[in-house]
UniProtKB/TrEMBL annotation:
Residues 4-80 form the Pyrroline-5-carboxylate reductase catalytic N-terminal domain. It comes from the Bacteria. Residues 120-244 form the DUF2520 domain. InterPro entries: 6-PGluconate_DH-like_C_sf (IPR008927), DUF2520 (IPR018931), NAD(P)-bd_dom_sf (IPR036291), P5C_Rdtase_cat_N (IPR028939), TM1727-like_C_sf (IPR037108). This is DUF2520 domain-containing protein. It comes from Mesonia ostreae. Gene3D superfamilies: NAD(P)-binding Rossmann-like Domain (3.40.50.720), ProC-like, C-terminal domain (1.10.1040.20).
Amino acid sequence: MITVSILGSGNVATHLYRAFAESTEVQLVQIYGRNPTNLLAFKDKVSTCSRLEDLKKVDIFILAVKDDAVEEIIQKLKHRDAIIAHTSGSIPLSQSAKKNGVFYPLQTFSKDTPVDFKHIPLCLEASDKEIYTLLEKLALSISPKVFSISSEQRKSLHLSAVFVCNFVNHLYHIGESLCEKNEVPFEILHALILETARKASLHSPKAVQTGPAVRNDQKSIATHLERLTDEKYKEIYTLLTQSIQATYGTKL
């Protein structure tokens, strides 16, 4: 049985708590959070604390906190012989911990949206083989998708994730706002969204690109630009069209 405490009470911490709570190989000892109010959701299910000095010794501390708080918390932890693993996609292995690692779940998390960790890749890194082995055991207790990823690779993954998740979601927002403006149910686009994601997971996205930009359909492009009254949206449309046409050798 691996003993674990989670430091953090946000989206990532909440979902890791739920996953570890269901694992028969993990004993979840404590949840730490600076704001006692945020700990109320956990209070009846696991021991909580809002002071680092109240943390008990465990095998692994999982730091699911903001990037700029990671080093500060590591330096203040009194249990320096435990493995300390952060969940950040963009910061490297800590230099402050004696036994340091990374336990990075590559997924978008919202507290009220359930996720199945069996389908979530866990990207691991550790300062030595022994630490990696224990982190791997912990990861495999909640997901079969476990990858050894270096700090440099993780930075590239995080950047890629911003493009395929955060930026794409913002484009969904723009599409939804255009639908609302014209009194069209956004629901009509749901099937298209799902099919686009499905194709991108089955093939190279470059191989399945469709639309007026890749076809060099100048008439449709001009019509779309004319209909876009928001200059920010028009600029985004133009930049993406130019990028697609540069990729496929056509010209705006």
